[in-house]
Amino acid sequence: MLNVVKSPYRTAYENLAFEQELLRTGTPFLFTHRDAPCVSVGFNQDIEAEVDAALAKELGVDIVRRQSGGGAVYRDEGCVAFSMAVPRDLLPRAMEVPERALMALGAPAVRNDRNDVYVAGRKVCGCAWQDAGDLVVFHGSVLFDVDLDAMDRLLVPGKRKYCGTAMRSVFARVRNIKDLVPQMTADEFQGALERALLASVSLGAM
Predict the structure, then answer these.
(1) β-strand partners of 38
(2) Which tens digit of pLDDT belongs to each residue from 30-78?
(3) Residue 38 carries which DSSP code?
(4) Residue 39 host element (H or E)
């Protein structure tokens, strides 16, 4: 059974810190949150090669580094982020959950070998994971009604070369889930996604 937590916070810094507090309890959890505009970069990424830092500063967009790997992610209040902390042996099942949850919400979702989720060939959810001792944390960011223009302007993969061993993001075409459910608000989608994620966890007998 997962402890379900909906964040009371609205910045990436606060939510990253809160997630670490949850991890210190040692209890499996499902944590969902939405952030003010930010760019979250993976543990091994070179920020300069991934983000237009000058533009981020001009726009008041936070740049944060998370503990998991994966590519750079732009998030705002139109993006629903989730983290599932589960025992290590259940990570493969956790990786299946976002695809199943979005399918349950009516989206024809397909997961690729990077555990990202696509709808009609366009990316709607990027995922990564982090080793956290007895637990592993599987993260995902679901694009519901994200400012895709800001995303395009702030993320700059391909414009600079690799820096050392840093990992450069794989750019993919994206879309918002709201295109499929225009009547739904971000708050409603967050609640629906949380319920669908929980139902999918139960179906996977985690």
Answers:
(1) 62, 75
(2) 999 999 999 999 888 889 889 999 999 999 999 999 988 888 899 999 9
(3) E
(4) strand 38-41
The reported pTM is 0.88
Query: How far is Cα 61 from Cα 64, in angstroms, rounded to an integer?
Result: 10
Region of 158 (left: φ > 0; alpha: ψ -120 to 50; beta: rest) is: left
Q: Which two tokens stand for residue 146?
A: 């994200």
Measured CA to CA, the distance from residue 84 to residue 3 in angstroms comes to 10
Q: What whole-number distance in Å separates Cα of residue 188 and Cα of residue 116?
A: 23
Compute the radius of gyration of the chain from its Cα atoms.
Answer: 16
**What distance in Å separates the CA atoms of residue 184 and residue 80, rounded to the nearest whole number?**
13
Query: Is 129 in contact with 114 (CB distance < 8 Å)?
Result: no
DSSP string, 72-134: -EEE-TTEEEEEEEEEGGGHHHHHHHHHHHHHHTT--EEE-TTS-EEETTEEEEEEEEEEETT
CA gap 202, 193 in Å, rounded: 14
Q: How far is CA 121 from the centre of its chain?
A: 18
CA–CA separation, 36 vs 69, rounded Å? 21
The side-by-side arrangement of strands in the sheet containing 29-33 is 3-6, 29-33, 79-87, 135-143, 122-132, 117-119, 109-111
Q: Are 50 and 169 in contact (CB under 8 A)?
A: yes
